[in-house]
Amino acid sequence: MERPLTERIRPGETNWLADYQKAGGYEGLKAALKMTPREVQEVVKQSNLRGRGGAGFPTGLKWSFVPLGDDAPRPKYLIANGDEMEPGTFKDRLLLEGDPHQLIEGMIISAYAIQAEVGYIFLRWAYKKAEHVINKALAEAYQAGLLGKNILGSGFNFDLYLHTSAGRYICGEETALINSLEGKRANPRAKPPFPQTSGLFGKPSIVNNIETLCNVPHILHHGPDWYHSISHSVDGGTKIFGVSGKVKNPGLWELPLGVTLREVLEEKAGGMREGLKFKGLLPGGASTDFLTEQHLDIKLDYKGVEQAGSRLGTGTMIVLDDQTCVVGMVHNLEQFFAQESCGWCTPCRDGLPWTRNILWTIENGQGKMEDLEILEGMTKTLAPGNTFCALAPGAMEPLQSALKYFREDFERHIKEKRCPWRS
Amino acid sequence: MLTDKEIAEIEEHIKHYPRKQAAVIEALKVVQAHRGYVSDESVKDIADFLEMTPDEVDSVATFYNLIFRKPVGKHVILLCDSVSCWIMGYENVRDHLKKKLNIDLGQTTQDGEFTLLTIPCLGACDRAPAMMVDNDLHGNLTAEKIDEILEKYK
Amino acid sequence: MVTINIDGKNYQVEPKNNLLQTVLSLGLDLPYFCWHPAMGSVGSCRQCAVKKYADENDQKGRIVMACMEPVVDGMRISLNDPEVKKFRENIIELLMTNHPHDCPVCDEGGECHLQDMTLMSGHNYRRFEFNKRTHNNQYLGPFINHEMNRCIACYRCVRFYREYAGGRDFNVFASRNRVFFGRYEDGVLESEFSGNLVEICPTGVFTDKTYKKHYTRKWDLTTAPSICHNCSLGCNIIAGERYGAIRRIASRYNGKVNGYFICDRGRFGYEYVNSDQRIKEPLRRGQASGQLEPVDVSTAFEFVKNIVSKKGKILGIGSPKASVESNFALQKFVGKENFFAGVSGPEHRLTLKAMDIMQNGPSNVPSLKETEKADVVLVLGEDVTNTAPMLALSLRQASRVKPMELPIKMNIPTWHELAAMELIQDERGPFFVLTPSETKLDDVATATYRNAPDNIARMGFAIAHEIDHNAPAVEDLTEEEKKLAKQIADELVAAKKPLIVSGTSLLNEKILEAAANIGRAIDKKEKIANLFFVLPEANSFGLAMLEDKALDQALQAAENNKYDAVVILENDLYRRLPASEADRLLNSAGKVVALHYLQNQTTEKADLVIPVGPFTESDGTLINNEGRAQRFFQVFYPQETIKESWRWLAGFMEDNGLVGEDELVNLDDLINAVVSDYPAISAIKEAAPGSQFRINGQKIPRASHRFSGRTSINAMCRSANQNHRKMQILPCPLPWKATMDRCRRPPCRVSGTLAGIRYRLLISFKLKLAADCMAVIPAYVCLNRAWKMNLIILKKCRPCSKHKKTTGWPFRSICFTAATNSAVLRPALKN
Ligand SMILES: Cc1cc2nc3c(=O)[nH]c(=O)nc-3n(C[C@H](O)[C@H](O)[C@H](O)COP(=O)(O)O)c2cc1C
Ligand code: SF4
Ligand code: FES
C-alpha cells in the first residue's frame, strides 16, 4: 500500500531539505515548471484531488477560477490553511512537523499553477514545534533557490511567509482566515465573491488545506493515473485518517480513500478498550454527524460518508463508547462552538450559547422535555445557508444526529433528573 | 514605549505584508512574547507605531483569545478542554490542576508562577488528555504526570 | 424593469436594488436590522430571510437573506412561507435573549425598530430561561448615552461611524456573544456625525442625552418639519417640542440634500432656543433709567408709529440667518433703497460672486446628495468639515466612487457593502484637498496641498491652465506644484463627474475665480464640471437675491443721510463689523430697533427690542448654497408677545398704513408679495404647500397619535399657564394641524422604515409597521419631482381607509412628505 504523504515521516523527527530531496523531493516541482500553469491545473483536475480541509471541494476546479493572464490583478496569493482547530483533528500537525518541504513544494507548484507571487502558511498558534520546523525549512528553501526570484531558473517568482495565528477556530474558515491575515478581526466574508477572484487584500487568492497541498507534488511527480491507482475510490489518492477516544490504539494512518470504517476502527485503532463497547463516532471532526454501529461497513470516501448521513470532513474520528455520556459529549462540543463563534451573525452568536446552556441543564438533571424541542428547532434555525458561515451549521451536525440516534439518552436524563453515566 | 528589539521584530513582520497595519496581530504577539501580556499602554504604543488608533488595535486584540490583555503568570498552562480530551478524562485533569495550584480556571497562582487557562483542541487527540505549558506540549496526562511536569517549571 | 413573483403575485421592479429594499419599496413587510439604505448589505442579522425557489417546479425552496440577494428577472420568492416565517421568529427570539426588556425606561421607546420588528415577526413568548450576558456602559460625552445591554449586534453603529463617517475612535470589541460596541476607553466621541448613532441604532444603545435629560417620550413631542439654520447646506430636520421647550432635533430624510443624516451641530446645537437669554417681550429703553425695560406690545407698536408718522427715514439691516420672508418684510417696510444686507461688505460681495458663477458659469451646480456621486473631487480652499459638515460626509462617500468601479466590473452590486469594501480595501479618490491647514478629509485624499489662500488660488488657476491652455497661466510654480497641478488636471479631465468644491470661508475672491476657471476649462473639453460652493450662512443666498448692498454701504449711508431710525433684523452687528464701525453705525442712525430672540451686543444698544421667534417659533423660507428654497415650519406657538419677525414687520406696515388691512396676514401673503417683487425667486412658492393644503380634507397632524400620553397631555392643558392650551385654540395658518388630537383619523399614516423611498419621511424614522400607507409613495415621488402634479396624484392618495391591516401596535408616525419638497431656484435664475 502506498503512503506518499507519510512514508518518509518517522515519529518525532523532521525531514530536512537533504532528506527530502534524497527521497525524490522537488521532482514534482521540476515536472511542473516544464508545463504551463493551465497544464498543471489540468493534471490536478484529472487526479480528482479533493480538498482535505473539510469541505472536499475539487482542488483543480477551485484553482481554475483564478484569473490567469497578463491582465489578471496582481499580486495573487496562495494560502496554506494550517489552522487545524477542529476538535478531534490532528493530521496536519504530522505533516507540518514531519515533512515541511513536502508542503513547501506543494505550495510552489500550486502557486505556479495559479501564478501567485506571494504565499502564506497560516499556522495555528499552538503548533510551536511546527512553527520552528517551517521557519527552518523556509530558510533552507530560500537558500536553495526554491523560493524567491526565478525559481530553479524558470523565471517564476514566489515568496512564502509563515503567519502564526493568535487563536480562534474561526480563523480556519477560509475567508475569516483572509481577514485575519490582513490584521483584522476574523469575521468571515460574504461568498460570493469567492477568494479566487477577490481574496486577500482584495486580490485573487486560493486557500488550501495543508494535507491537500502535500498531495500536489506527488500528483505532479507520478501523474494522475498513478494517483487514482493508489485509491480505492473515485476520489483520487490517499487520506490521513485518525482515531481518538477510548480505542486501544489511537493515532493516524495514511490509507487509500475508500477503505471501510471498520478497517480503520478495528484493524488500525485496534477496536475499543477492554470493557467498553462502541456506541458511535464523529467521522471527520467535531462538525460532522454521528455514525453508529450500522455504518461500520461504509466506504470512507466523500460519497460514502455522505450517503450514511454525515461528512468525511477532516477524516479524523472521535469515538464515543458506551460508558461516556453522549449528552455530556455534545455539551462539550457545543461549548466549543459557542465559545468560538465570531459574533457576526445572530443565529450562531446567540443560538449556540443557548444550545450549550440547555445541554448543560439536561446533563445536570434539570432538563425539560420542551428543551428537546428547542434543541431541534435550533438545528433547523442554524441549518446550512441560514447562518453567515459554516461554523454554526457544523455545530448542529453532532447535535442533530445525537438527537436522532441517542434520543433516549437525552430523555433518560430528563426523566431521571440526573446523568445516568455519573455516579 | 516599545523597545528597540520589539520594534525590530515588528518591522520584520511588516515586510511580509503590503501594508503595515496587517502586521498588527504580529505586533501584539511580539509585545506579549516580551512582556507576558499586552497592557493598555502597549496597545497605545502599537497603535502609534502602526499609525492606527487604540480603538483599532484593541478591536483586533480583544477578538483573539491568545492575546492576553491582562497580566498572566510566569508560565501559562493551556489545558485542552475539547471533545477528545473530555472523553479521555479532561475533568479529572482539570480538577487535579485546580487543586494542585489552588486556583480556578482563568486565575494565576499567588506566587505568580502559573496561570491556568483552557484552550480548544490542541491537535493532540491521540495523546489525550493534553495541555501546553508555555511552548511545550504534554500528552497522556495523569495526576502523577502533571505533578512531574509542573516541577520542571518551578 | 423585470418581473418578480412574491407569494404568487407578479411585480414589475427595477433590478438595481437588493431584494430586501425592493420588497420594502413595494410596500410589503419584511423585518430587518443590519441593512441600511445608506450603508448597504452585510447579511449579519439574518432577520430578512425569505424563501427563494429555483424554478416553477421547486416546491421546497431555500431560505436566503433578502438583503444579500440581487433581484433577477423571473425570480420567485415567498415572504409568507411557514418555514421562513418561523425562521424569522426564531431569529428575533435569539436577538432578544440578552435584551434587558427595559422599554419603559428606554429613550428609544416610541420609535424603536427592535420593538416594531419583534412585533412584526410575531415573537412574544419568551423561552430563554438563562442568565443574560451584561456589559458595562461607557461615558461617550455630553451628547450620547450608552446602554450596551440593549445591543442586538447589528454592527450598524460601527459601520456608520468608521466606514461611512470616517471616525476612528469607535469600534467593535471582543467576540461571540460578548461583542461590545464603543470606545477604547471612556471619552467624548470625536466624530462630528456621532449623533447619527442615535438614529442608526435600531434599539436604545445610543440615545440622545440632551433629550434624555428631560424624561420626554417620543409620543409627547409636537414636531414640525424644519430646516437646519447652522450652515448654508440647509439639511432637513424635524424639531420636537414639549411644554414650550425644544427637546430634540432629528434628521428628516431628504434624498436631494442630507439623505438620512445630519451633523452634530445641527442635532445638538438647538439649546439656545431654550436659553434664559431669550427675549420674551418687547423691551424699551426707559427714559429715566436708561435701561431696557419690558413694555407691552402696543407700546412697541407706538414706538414704531412715532418714527414712521414723522415721515422718518428708516435704515433696514437684514440677516443671512433670517428667512427670505422676514428680510423681504423689512425691505418692504423701510424701502428698497434703505435696506442693506446685514453682512460685511467683502463677505457679501463674495457671496454674490459665487452666485454669479453658479448662475452664469458653464458648470453644473449639484445638489448635496449629487456630490456623493462625483468620481474625482477637488477641494479648493474650503475646510468643509468646519464650514459645511454634511458636505464632508458626502465627499467621503464620493471618495469611494471611482474605486467602486472595480466591484461593478466584477458584477458585485454596489449595495453589497461587505464584498465591495473587501475588494476596494483602502483605495480612495482621486481626491485632492488644497487648504491652508490640515482637514479631516485628508485621510481620503490622494494628495494634499498646504499653502496660503492666494497660493491655493494660484494652484487653482494652474490646474485650469493645465486643462485648457487658453486659460491664464501661472508663473513661478515649483516643480512639485506643477506636477500636482498636472495630476489634478488629468484626473479632472478623465473623470465622468468631476467635482470642484470651494467656498467663501477664506474670504478670497481669487479662489472662487480659480474654481470657476477650472469649471470653464473642463467645459472646453466638452465635459460638464460640477461646482459646489459653500456659502457663509443658512440664508446667504436668499439675502443676496434680495439685496446687493452690505454693511459697509450701510455705514456710509447712515453717516451721509439723516436716518431717524435703524431696524436690525435677527442680527448682531458686532459679529459682522469691527466694534468701532458697529458703534459708528448705531450712533449715527437715530433710534435703534432690534428684532431678535437672544440678547446680544446689538440688542444691548437698542432703544427698542422686539421679541421674535427663532426657527422653532416661526416659519419661512431659506435658500441654501445651491439655490434650493426650503421652508421651515413653526414647531410650537410661544407666548403671545413672541412672533415671527415677518409678522411683526407686517404688523408695523399695516399699523402705519403702508399696506392694506389684511394684505399681509399669513405666510402665503408674504410669499406672494415676494414673488411679485422678485420673479427670479418665484420658486420659493413651490418650496412647500400653502396654508390651504389638505389631505383628505384634513390638515397634516404633526404630533404623533397619542395613546398612553393622551391623558397626561390633556391634564397639562387643563392646568393653568400651559402653552398647550393656547396651541390648541390658535388657528394655525399652516398646512399642519397642531396635534393629532381631534384628528378624525390620521390623514397619512406612513410607515417609517422602508427603503429609500419611504424611509424617514416622518417623525419616527425607525417605525415600520404594516405598510399602511402605500398611497403616500406616489405622492412623495411626485411632490419631489414637480409640485404642480401633486394634486392629481394626491387624489389617489387614500391612506388609512384602504389599508385596514393593523398590527395592534400604536401607530405613531406622521407624514411630512409635503415639506420635503424643495424648489431649486437656479433654472429660474438662468432665464
Ligand atoms: C469554522 C470553520 C473552520 C475551518 N477550519 C479549517 C481548518 O482548520 N483547516 C482547514 O484546512 N480548513 C478549515 N476549514 C475549511 C476551510 O474554510 C476551507 O474550506 C479549506 O481550507 C479549503 O481547503 P481545501 O479545499 O484544501 O480543503 C474550516 C471551515 C470552517 C467553516
Ligand atoms: S456562523 Fe456567523 S457568528 Fe458563527 S462564526 Fe460564522 S459568521 Fe461568525
Ligand atoms: S441579514 Fe438582511 S437585514 Fe440583516
Describe this structure in words.
The complex is a heterotrimer of chains A (423), B (154) and C (831). Chain A is an alpha/beta fold. Chain A has 3 domains: 17-229, 3-Layer(aba) Sandwich (Rossmann fold), CATH 3.40.50.11540; 238-321, Ubiquitin-like (UB roll) (Roll); 326-416, de novo design (two linked rop proteins), CATH 1.20.1440.230. Chain A has 16 helices and 9 strands. In chain A, helix 2 packs parallel to helix 6 (100-114), helix 13 runs antiparallel to helix 14 and helix 14 crosses helix 15 (391-405). Chain B is of the alpha+beta class and 154 residues long. Chain B folds into 2 domains: 4-63, Arc Repressor Mutant, subunit A (Orthogonal Bundle); 75-151, Glutaredoxin (3-Layer(aba) Sandwich), CATH 3.40.30.10. Chain B is built from 7 helices and 4 strands. In chain B, strands 2-1-3-4 form a 4-stranded mixed sheet, with helices on one face. In chain B, helix 1 (4-14) runs antiparallel to helix 2 (24-35), helix 2 crosses helix 3 and helix 3 (40-49) packs across helix 4. The longest helix of chain B has 12 residues, at 24-35. The two termini of chain B are 30 Å apart. Chain C has 4 domains: 2-96, Ubiquitin-like (UB roll) (Roll), CATH 3.10.20; 106-125 and 132-213, 2-Layer Sandwich (Alpha-Beta Plaits); 283-343 and 542-710 and 730-829, Rossmann fold (3-Layer(aba) Sandwich); 349-535, 3-Layer(aba) Sandwich (Dimethylsulfoxide Reductase, domain 2). Chain C is α/β, with parallel strands linked by helices and 831 residues long. Chains in contact: A-B, A-C, B-C. Chains A and B meet through strand 3, strand 5, strand 9 and helix 12 of A and helix 2 and helix 5 of B. The structure holds flavin mononucleotide, iron/sulfur cluster and FE2/S2 (inorganic) cluster. FE2/S2 (inorganic) cluster (FES) is lined by residues 20, 32-35, 43-48, 65, 67 of chain C.
Briefly say what this structure is:
Chain A has 423 residues and is α/β, with parallel strands linked by helices. Helices cover 43% and strands 12% of the residues of chain A.
